[in-house]
Amino acid sequence: MPAIQSKIEGRGNGIKTNVVNMVDVAKALARPPAYTTKYFGCELGAQTNWNDKTGTAIVNGAHDAAKLADVLEGFIKRFVQCFSCGNPETVVNVSKRDTIHLKCKACGAVSDVDMRHKLTTFILKNPPEKKSDKKDKQLRRAEMEREQEGAALDKAAEEEKKRRKAEKKDKKEKKDKKEKKSKSKKSKDDDDDDKPAGGSPERDSASEPEPESDEDDDDDDTVWATDTSAAAMAARAKEQLTDASAAMVEVATEELEKKASLEAKRLAEEAAAAEAAAAESSEEEEDERIAKVRAYAAKHDDAETAAYLVSDALGADSPALGIHFLVEAIFDDEKPLAPQVKAKIGLLKKACAADAPALQLALLCAIELYVTETATTEFKKIAVVLKELYDGDAAEEDVILKWGADPKSAKKFGVDAKTAEAVRKQAAPFLEWLQQSDEDSDSD
């Protein structure tokens, strides 16, 4: 944007300030010159006059260029910059309810203008010209498709999250049941070992009645269990049956012991399988190397952490995998991603050096996986995240455009083709803005 130029004309009560290059300033801001001129009057408490034919902007009173520049900065913050990413390339829209919005060309965010400012009344009376050409319709249609696909992906991600939670809960319940059953069986076997092999002869209740005591009253609710172990059954059989019958019982007892042994072996195998499944489930939830990166980054500076990602101590198979661990470790999926990226931009720059486009591409792929698997609520804000990476020099323009043109770039991280296409549709506003700025710079 060109520096504002002012020229003080007249004297006494007729003194006034002519903003010489108001047309160029307004053009750089993509706003009508009448808006900026009127804003000067609102902020300075002076009358203004804008002439469309001559392109002359007059503000009553004597105002130097520095003062006008300070006032213009307020206009940019209120009526030009995107409230989400700070990009000055926005479009002014007036809704049917007489509210003013700023649509960002980079991240696609829609910012609501504070309607309490005096300039909003002037804008409502003099709305910007609408361009309803074919390209605008295509952009609106593409925006609707992005929103629909984003909602569908959010719903699918939520269902997948619920399904995983249900599976994890079922596995835990099954494991608890098996452990409980195993403990019960072990306790029962210990009780069997403590009991004598032979049974005591039964008393004749008619001839020798048992004396009653107060203790019997206290133990009325106790349930006495008969020893059903194979050894006890064999002992009772020898005492109560003939030799031939006892032999038959011994054969049946051996079969029971064999079946019991097989059952115990089966239960042990199932318990081992359940433990292995639980361990596998915990590995799927978070790789232990992610925890190592998180702990290391909390105690060391950016340069040391960047070196740790490619060191043998971490044990990452490749530098790209180390970038994936870094993204999963330093970001909190319960908080908005874009502010976290801005806060950690120094670490990301160190990890993805400017002379390593491959690592920058790995960072973009790791972010793509993060917003589709870990922090699914940030899926629709991928354009804002890309803007933060671009502004912070963590990802170069060429690398971002290369990522946007190749939906298969994150396949190695486990992002399927359909999800990758949806991500790039959400990022389309920023990618188009980046492509357009690149073409403009080439033409210059």
DSSP strand count = 7
Structural class by SSE content = alpha+beta
Tell me the β content.
5-15%
What average pLDDT do the residues reach? Answer: 80
Low-confidence runs (pLDDT<50, min 5 residues)?
198-209, 212-220
Q: What general form does the structure show? A: elongated
The sequence of SSEs as H and E is EEHHEEHEEEHHHHHHHHHHHHHHH
What spatial order of strands do you see in the largest sheet?
1-2-4-3
Rg from alpha-carbon coordinates = 38 Å
Helicity level: 55-70%
* Measured distance between first and last alpha carbons: 16 Å
Tally of helical segments: 18
Q: Main sheet, how many strands, which sense, barrel? A: 4 strands, antiparallel
Description of the structure:
The protein is an alpha+beta fold. The protein contains 18 helices and 7 strands. The strands form 2 sheets. The chain has a 4-stranded antiparallel beta sheet with strand order 1-2-4-3, with helices on one face. It has a 3-stranded antiparallel beta sheet with strand order 5-6-7. The radius of gyration is 38 Å and the shape is elongated. 24% of the residues are buried.
